[in-house]
Amino acid sequence: MIPSPIIFALLLAASLSIFAWGCWRRFSLLALGRPEARFDNVGQRVREMLVYAFGQKRVLAKPFGINHVVIFWSFLILLVANGEFILNGLFPHSIKLIRLPYALYVPLAFMIDIASALALTAVVIAAIRRVMSPPFPQARTAEAFVILTLIALLMCAYFLMNGSELAAVMYRSTDPAAFIAGAGKVMPVSALVAGLLPQTLLEPIHGAAWWLHALALLIFISYLPNSKHMHILTAIPNCFFRRLDRPNTQPREEFALGNSFGIDRVDRFTWKDLLDTFACTECGRCQNVCPAGLTGKPLNPRGIIHDIKNNLLENGPLLKQGQKPRQTLIGEGGEEHCCEEAIWACTTCGACMEACPVFIEQMPKIVEMRRYLVQTEAQFPEELLNLFENMEGRSNPWGIAPSERTKWCAQMDVKTFDKDCEYLFYVGCAGSFDSRNKHVTVALAQLLDKAGISWGILGKDEKCCGDSLRRLGNEYVFDRMARENVALFRERGVKKVIVQCPHCFSTLKNDYRQYGLELEVVHHSQLLGSLVQEGRLKLDKATAEFGTTVFHDSCYLGRHNDVYDAPREVIEAATGSAPAEMERNRNKAFCCGAGGGRMWMEEHSGERINLTRVREALQEKPDTICVSCPYCMTMFEDGLKDVKGEGVRVRDVAEVLAEAVLR
Questions:
Q1: Sequence-ordered list of residues with C-beta below 8 angstroms from that of 392, at least 6 positions apart, any chain
Q2: How many other CB atoms are found less than 10 A from the CB of residue 133?
Q3: What is the distance between the alpha carbons of residues 327 and 431, in angstroms, rounded to a whole number?
Q4: How many Å apart are CA 72 and CA 256, to the nearest integer?
Q5: 303 and 282 in contact (C-beta within 8 Å)?
Q6: Are 534 and 462 a contacting pair, CB within 8 Å?
Q7: What span, in angstroms and rounded, lies between the C-alpha atoms of 650 and 653?
Q8: How far apart are the first and last CA of the chain?
Q9: Which residues make beta-bridge pairs with 457?
């Protein structure tokens, strides 16, 4: 018995109205965001969307991702079945899947039946996981179980409907066994259900199943845009609109009278930032890789996106009417505020963005809020005051006189860069002033001379690149420093730059492009690797002095700039064996804790991030921990002292190679 099409039509109209209103209520809020160009390179965007949204490439990076892929693709197939169900409910005597041509009906019915079984299995597994081993501690939400229950009810109702229809024909057949065997080749699961249903109850079972399916479907449609599962609608476009390059820099700010700086209101984010908040699947992958969160800090990247979304939903209607927001974006308490301590806990390592299956950009939003706190409110951790003053006054974090920049080469014949030099060796602040990292600078300089590289330095004229300033939100001082550096580089005719610091590498290569400066920037591990391959640095035999080595990936060299192999190749060439890998390595590497300006700040809550990473390195029982970053060098050496890692050394890749080449 098919219920009245009129009743179904009224319920469908109500459900679609709620769906449309929910979509409008949320999507219209995107118009509050500032403009942002995300419509370029359409062909590439379509390809990326197919790979990451439909191919679920990042979802499959985790073993349990296969379960989500099963649900996702089952739903795509079941769109046909649910579309047919709705049309059949409206026009019961005209539209039915079985009326399709036989050659089309059979494979379609088979796919729908199998997809329904797979979807039911997957949601049961997902529910068990939520109960037994949730992806993150807060994952056991009523909302999640409501959605899983609705999906399970849809699948069960589908099998009861089709099973009762097949059973009705089977009981009228002269050869029920032959009929059910034939039906099993088209709809195997439904045929199995049909064989279990009693003949006397077929009509009430079919009617109850039809209504169960209808109500579950209509409730699902109504609920979808008003819940976190709105990501079903927004994840695919979010993959389309993702940044095609790596999100390793920030947009510039224009410092003019009347402008606002940073972000303290949701309508100052871009429309894509706001879309990110609706695209979040709350899978928890970002928080499961966040070094701050994992070491007991209040930062939770998923929570930041969730808080921005709640603030948008709370303030959006007022902002659309031109009124002031009711809730502040940055504050303490409640799910509409981003916690200030959490904002300052970020190391800008990029692990959250690397893990996100739908390309949400958490880190840039945090930096934008830092900009507001620093530039508008002058509200930042106390220990940053000296850093900012030193940067403004003497262009280095320690406030050391610029004339001291060349002390590392007092016993060497180092040339000042001129137009006859092929490379500028941009030493950087740590390489110039830090007593431990000066050894790396000397080793690198000696290797460059040994290879016959034409290079020079800026000496006392060198200024900090401004990386820490920009990541900490002091865009005004960074902007001034970047302009001065760009002018100096142009004046001196700099085209190629060697750096030993990944933070300098990323800033000169990526951030300075915003100022019209196109440089060929090479990290020392890349250059040294190529010099070894070209035979310009000869190794008579590999050195065994460093024993068993393990390599730590710098976030700004690896995740931010995709350089993973070069430092490993240098270590292997110098020692004769590839370095051991930590459990978390390459694009999944755990941060040392110094990025995002955290080098200059204390950790007041939880365990220090560098201690967690040092302990992970010591699990490999190394004699030497190899690094490719002066910040990492400092964090590992400090960490080894605290965990009493006796006998374990920390060496830069340049030092390892120098031992093999120069001894």
A1: 477
A2: 9
A3: 45
A4: 48
A5: no
A6: no
A7: 10
A8: 91
A9: 416
What one-character DSSP code corresponds to residue 457? B
CB-based contacts of 347, cutoff 8 Å, min separation 6: 291, 292, 555, 591, 593, 594, 595, 596, 598, 609
Backbone φ, ψ for residue 270 (5° rounding): -80, 165
- How many Å apart are CA 357 and CA 135, to the nearest integer? 14
Encoding tokens for residue 257? 């009278």
Strand order through the sheet with 520-523: 455-456, 423-426, 496-499, 520-523
Pairing mode of beta strands 580-581, 496-499: unpaired
640: how many CB neighbours lie within 10 A of its CB? 21
Token output for 368:
């934008």
Tokens of residue 148, six digits: 């899983």
Q: Which amino acid is at 258?
A: G
Q: What are phi and psi of 451, to 5 degrees?
A: -85, -5
- Where does residue 332 fall: left (phi above 0), alpha (psi -120 to 50 degrees), or beta otherwise? beta
* Nearest one of 289, 121, 295, 146 to 220, comparing CA atoms: 146
| Burial degree of 393 (CB within 10 A; 0-12, 13-18, 19+) | exposed
The series of mean pLDDT values per 10 residues for the chain, 663 residues long, is 82 97 96 96 97 97 95 95 93 82 90 96 96 90 93 96 92 86 90 92 94 96 92 96 93 92 97 98 95 97 97 96 94 89 98 98 98 97 97 97 96 95 98 98 98 98 98 98 98 98 98 97 98 93 86 98 98 96 98 98 96 98 98 98 92 96 84
CA 417 to chain centre: 39
Q: Which residues contact 372 (CB under 8 A, 6 or more apart)?
A: 261, 262, 263, 264, 330, 473
C-alpha to C-alpha distances, 101 to 97, 105, 187, 255, 584, nearest whole angstrom: 9, 6, 16, 67, 54
Answer yes or no: pTM beyond 0.90: yes
| The residue count for the chain | 663
Closest to 634 in 3D by CA, of 593, 574, 579: 593
Residues whose CB is less than 8 angstroms from the CB of residue 199 and which lie 6 or more positions away in sequence, other chains included: 167, 171
Residue found by looking up tokens 């699990």 in the block: 619
Query: Do 197 and 163 form a contact (C-beta atoms < 8 A)?
Result: yes
In the structure encoding, which two tokens stand for residue 271, read together? 């429309």
Of residues 628, 624, 625, the one with CA closest to residue 654: 628
Whose CA is closest to 171, among 207, 146, 198? 198
d(CA 36, CA 48): 19
C-alpha 389 chain-centroid distance: 33
Please state, in angstroms and rounded to a whole number, the distance separating the CA atoms of residues 38 and 535.
45
